[in-house]
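Below is how a single chain appears once it has passed through the pipeline. First comes the sequence as given, then the structure the pipeline wrote out for it. We keep one example in the README because the format questions we get most often are answered faster by looking than by reading.
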Amino acid sequence: MTALLENAERDEEQEKKLERTFAKEYHLITRDERLETIAKDLVEHFMGRGMLGQAIVVCVDRCTAVRMHDKVKKH
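Resulting structure:
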């Protein structure tokens, strides 16, 4: 997706609009309360299903992945 955005031809106004949209969504996606709820749900789901296994959690960036890791370990 990053390559697609970098290669797209946009004028300055479109570029600023895109930056504002991503900035707003990033803040919502990485909100601490949201991450806490997701981590709790993940742990309840995988611990309560009665079988061993692994899971992969995909996050928007490395910082958020580390935060999610810490929250999952806590629960």
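The chain has a mean pLDDT of 86.

See the next section for the split statistics.
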